[in-house]
Design brief:
Blueprint: H1 2-27, E1 41-53, E2 86-101, E3 104-113, E4 116-126, E5 133-141, H2 162-168, E6 173-182, E7 188-196, E8 228-239, E9 242-259, E10 267-286, E11 292-311, E12 316-335, E13 340-354, E14 364-376, E15 379-392, E16 398-413
Antiparallel strand pairs: 1-2, 1-16, 2-3, 3-4, 4-5, 5-6, 6-7, 7-8, 8-9, 9-10, 10-11, 11-12, 12-13, 13-14, 14-15, 15-16
Length: about 425
């Protein structure tokens, strides 16, 4: 509640300071240092939906070996969009952008839901570095993969692919620094790297953990330094009406994942290293100035190696742990008219090899179709249907969830163009 009140107060102050300079400018329009010239670009985006799920308790189900509940909280590591049958308030997003001076610009996004508000991104980027270099620092969505750095209102579907939910909870959003080099070539070729704090709980984590007093193991300490390192290459080629985009990414980090290791009902924790590699391809053919066909696919592989600690209420054990997991999605988007789009996506959590585990499941699919109507660039109405065969209940039984979502996304204010 306190976070939500803070968010409302921020919006009120911004609107007050936005209106005030305009009034002053009407009175003294010739003032060369009018405050209006220093007001940043501001945008507000609101996303709501009406959802139906055939499995009433689907948010409690698991994708064994990939996505499961915390032992203590019963929650998943993923966004809570479209979670309830009936009406959903998914989020309100307010973004700010402005050049600071000839050398830096500044961007920030505050993301608010029914459970509170948080700073989703807040970072600066450099403008004057030589040799095609650019630095970003602060809190930001990592540039790995094809869609990790896209905000929710720019997704092609109402939710993220399963592989993103499994490996990152939703997206890799971290505190750190990024450097990019744009090569001086006749085609687009970008190389980048990031040093990140590594708080992502789905694959990494910085918080250490202790064991029961009878355990013969030393506590795992908190990470006091950057914990995750990424690198990526992105390139693009244009041939007439056809555009080809290719990308590859790599991530390495230390993992500290605690799922109730001291819970008297039993729990476990993992400490080790995690390696993630991915590749993506996008093909887009422009039929004319406003119609196109886009085919996009991405594959991500994760390898975890370390120690698995288990507590049964009496004793804590330590065993070697390895996991080889992968997932992919492929989607086809067709812009059928000036105001309409349609799409289909196939999700698959594929490889799931975990030592000493009979519960991990492989080849978990989901099929999703959507149609959308965009009256203007500031409004979107989307109807989406998903046939999800990736869910399992507590007894280990596979459950199929039919999900229907009617989504409304509206925005006001100045918002920069999205990347292709």
């Amino acid at each position: 509640m306190k976070n939500l009140q803070m968010f409302i107060m921020i919006i009120t102050l911004i609107l007050f300071h936005t209106i005030l300079p305009v009034s002053a400018q009407d009175i003294t329009s010739s003032a060369p240092f009018s405050q209006a010239k220093f007001v940043p670009d501001i945008a507000v985006i609101v996303d709501t939906s009406y959802a139906y799920n055939s499995q009433k308790d689907f948010i409690k189900f698991e994708r064994p070996g990939f996505i499961h509940q915390h032992e203590e909280t019963g929650e998943h590591h993923e966004h809570g969009f479209n979670q309830d049958n009936g009406f959903n308030f998914n989020y309100a997003e307010i973004s700010f952008y402005s050049p600071v001076d000839p050398y830096f610009d500044l961007f920030a996004v505050v993301h608010a839901g029914t459970e509170g508000a948080e700073i989703e991104e807040a970072y600066f980027t450099t403008l004057q570095l030589p040799f095609g270099l650019k630095i970003k620092a602060g809190k930001f969505l990592s540039a790995i993969g094809r869609i990790n750095d896209r905000h929710a209102h720019y997704w092609d579907f109402s939710d993220l692919p399963l592989v993103y939910q499994a490996f990152f909870g939703s997206q890799l959003n971290e505190i750190g620094a990024q450097i990019n080099w744009l090569a001086p070539l006749p085609f687009y070729f970008l190389i980048g790297a990031e040093i990140l704090k590594g708080q992502n709980e789905a694959s990494f984590g910085t918080e250490g953990f202790e064991f029961a007093s009878t355990a013969p193991y030393s506590p795992i300490e908190d990470a006091q330094y950057p914990n995750v390192y990424t690198t990526y290459i992105k390139t693009s080629f244009d041939t007439g009406k056809l555009t080809l985009l290719l990308g590859t990414s790599g991530i390495y980090g230390k993992s500290r994942i605690n799922h109730g290791i001291t819970n008297t009902n039993g729990g476990h924790a993992f400490y080790g290293s995690t390696y993630i590699a991915g590749a993506d391809i996008t093909l887009r053919y422009d039929l004319n100035s406003y119609q196109y066909i886009a085919l996009q696919s991405e594959y991500i592989y994760r390898y975890k190696d370390g120690d698995l600690y288990k507590y049964n209420g009496t004793n804590t054990t330590k065993d070697d742990f390895t996991a080889r997991q992968s997932g992919l999605y492929s989607q086809l988007i067709v812009k059928t008219g000036k105001l309409t789009r349609a799409g289909f996506r196939y999700d698959l959590l594929a490889q799931n090899e975990i030592n000493e585990s009979d519960e991990a499941k492989s080849y978990l699919p989901r099929y999703t179709a959507m149609v959308e109507y965009n009256p203007t660039e500031f409004s979107r109405f989307r109807l989406q249907y998903s046939y999800d065969k990736s869910l399992y209940d507590e007894s280990g039984s596979n459950k199929v969830n039919h999900q229907i979502i009617l989504q409304c996304n509206l925005s006001i204010g100045a918002h920069g163009a999205h990347s292709f």
